[in-house]
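Example 3.2
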Amino acid sequence: MTDEELTRIFGVSIQTIRLDRMELGIPELRERIKTMAERSFDQVRSLPLHEVIGEIIHLELDKSGISILEIGEEQVFSRTKIARGHHLFAQANSLAVAVIDAEIALTSTADIRFIRPVRLGEKCVAKAFVRSGSSRSSKVRVEVFTYVGEELVFQGSFMVYRAKKGEMEGGFAHADADRS
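Structure, written as tokens:
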């Protein structure tokens, strides 16, 4: 739970929650999530971790993954404070690629749906599930569902192309020729 959620539950100030947390030696939520994530999931192979949009908190290669993205000022339209859609897409797409157990994974198609606008300060939790394709298959279907709290706000179905080692050396056209 976040400090803000605890203030609402216990009816105390955020400073009280933070002082109690410090006194008990409980790190802030982001540090707890990072520590748990570092210990409890597979390592991303298909792209550098810093290129994943959002923070991965769970990852089982070729099975499932979860990431969290808190919507900040830089991700919203200034007039409406509604998140720009490409940030939600980028979170889902990068998680779909990250869940693939391959050195190179590329999105070949995406079927996406925005269900409701996401606003400044909301936390988007994306959950990815590998639905088809074996560990040797070159094409894998990954479904991603993004929630704010319990509410579904985005969903996408991604076909991810798993490139074989050395396949991309000839350039992208070489990989496209192998896709057909």
